[in-house]
UniProtKB/TrEMBL annotation:
<feature type="binding site">
    <location>
        <position position="102"/>
    </location>
    <ligand>
        <name>Mn(2+)</name>
    </ligand>
</feature>
<dbReference type="InterPro" id="IPR014033">
    <property type="entry name" value="Arginase"/>
</dbReference>
<dbReference type="GO" id="GO:0030145">
    <property type="term" value="F:manganese ion binding"/>
</dbReference>
<keyword id="KW-0464">Manganese</keyword>
<comment type="pathway">
    <text>Nitrogen metabolism; urea cycle; L-ornithine and urea from L-arginine: step 1/1.</text>
</comment>
<feature type="binding site">
    <location>
        <position position="129"/>
    </location>
    <ligand>
        <name>Mn(2+)</name>
    </ligand>
</feature>
<feature type="binding site">
    <location>
        <position position="231"/>
    </location>
    <ligand>
        <name>Mn(2+)</name>
    </ligand>
</feature>
<keyword id="KW-0056">Arginine metabolism</keyword>
<dbReference type="GO" id="GO:0000050">
    <property type="term" value="P:urea cycle"/>
</dbReference>
<dbReference type="InterPro" id="IPR006035">
    <property type="entry name" value="Ureohydrolase"/>
</dbReference>
<dbReference type="InterPro" id="IPR023696">
    <property type="entry name" value="Ureohydrolase_dom_sf"/>
</dbReference>
<feature type="binding site">
    <location>
        <position position="229"/>
    </location>
    <ligand>
        <name>Mn(2+)</name>
    </ligand>
</feature>
<feature type="binding site">
    <location>
        <position position="125"/>
    </location>
    <ligand>
        <name>Mn(2+)</name>
    </ligand>
</feature>
<dbReference type="InterPro" id="IPR020855">
    <property type="entry name" value="Ureohydrolase_Mn_BS"/>
</dbReference>
<dbReference type="GO" id="GO:0006525">
    <property type="term" value="P:arginine metabolic process"/>
</dbReference>
<keyword id="KW-0378">Hydrolase</keyword>
<dbReference type="GO" id="GO:0005737">
    <property type="term" value="C:cytoplasm"/>
</dbReference>
Length: 302
């Protein structure tokens, strides 16, 4: 079966206000430098790159609430990103968002959900990103975007593009998880979200995990967003991330997941986040990100 190849729009978001350390703001450049556009053209896509959104530098702004660092600035960038993603969908194109820290998912998911009656969401990460102001151990908003998309969090974030929630817990799935905070565990239990931890992946294998995951994100939905945090991968394969956690997805496990997503032909938008070139090793993590994007968009060996 030949996959439908919607024209792709690349949107860079050099955001690092949501992370505890600098460097992810260079993620979009590093991913572009790893030949993203060329590779997608080789795959048969028409590709448009709209460049980077403007993101203020932390040095020129002050932390007002240490439990929600740079709230106003992040909310404002996410609003712009949401509009950009939404316009991209309206133009019949596939939004491919490059981060930046994971707080940008608040905007991407807002824009993607705006056009759907029900959006499925597949979230690859070492972390849950399910914290709120009350539960955060760090005050970093990149630990909160999934809670926000489900409708939990500060109103300035939750009401991005003027509606909430963006997704329903029964259509959300987390994969690769191995580092949760207590408040996140509670929210997962309360909402009944399906989480595939590394333990589950070890036991079941990524093939079986993805079969179940695909069922969850497609059941009753009219679109699926992929949010992939590179720290979901093992630090051996993706060293250039700000919050690495041992024992992650292998190169092949993550590729199999992307290949199965492409095979299912359900993706309507995607984002790849948390690439930090300062901490990387010869741009390896950005190269892995590009390879994963290719697989998610249908690259096959034969
Ligand atoms: N997108 C990420 N890398 N998130 C890391 C979050 C780490 C921790 N759970 C926190 O809330 O601070
Ligand atoms: Mn993470
Ligand atoms: Mn994350």
């Amino acid at each position: 079966m030949v996959m439908e190849k919607k024209p792709v729009t690349v949107i860079g978001v050099p955001m690092d206000l949501g992370a505890g350390r600098r460097g992810v703001d260079m993620g979009p450049s590093a991913i572009r430098y790893a030949m993203l556009k060329e590779k997608l053209i080789q795959l048969g896509y028409e590709v448009e790159d709209v460049g980077n959104l403007h993101v203020p530098t932390p040095e020129t702004h002050q932390v007002v609430d240490p439990r929600l660092k740079y709230l106003k600035e992040i909310a404002s960038v996410c609003e712009t990103l949401g509009r950009t993603v939404s316009e991209t969908v309206e133009r019949g194109r596939f939004p491919l968002v490059l981060g930046g820290d994971h707080s940008i998912a608040i905007g991407t998911i807002a824009g993607a959900a705006k056009h759907r009656k029900r959006l499925g969401l597949i979230w690859f990460d070492a972390h849950g990103d399910l914290n709120t102001r009350e539960t955060t151990p760090s005050g970093n908003i990149h630990g909160m975007p999934l809670a926000v998309s489900l409708g939990y969090g500060h109103p300035d974030l939750v009401n991005c593009l003027g509606f909430t929630p963006k997704v329903q817990p029964e259509n959300v799935v987390l994969i690769g998880i191995r580092d949760l905070d207590e408040g996140e565990r509670k929210l997962i239990r309360q909402l009944g979200i399906r989480v595939f931890t590394m333990h589950d992946i070890d036991r079941l294998g990524m093939g079986a995990v993805m079969e179940e995951a695909l069922e969850i994100v497609t059941r009753g939905t009219d679109g699926v967003h992929l949010s992939l945090d590179l720290d979901g991968l093992d630090p051996k394969d993706a060293p250039g991330v700000g919050t690495p956690v041992e024992g992650g997805l292998t190169y092949r496990e993550s590729h199999l997941a992307m290949e199965m997503l492409a095979e299912a032909n359900v993706l309507t938008s995607a984002e790849f986040v948390e690439v930090n070139p300062i901490l990387d090793n010869g741009n390896r993590t950005a190269k892995v990100a590009v390879a994963l994007i290719e697989s998610a968009l249908g690259k096959q060996v034969i």
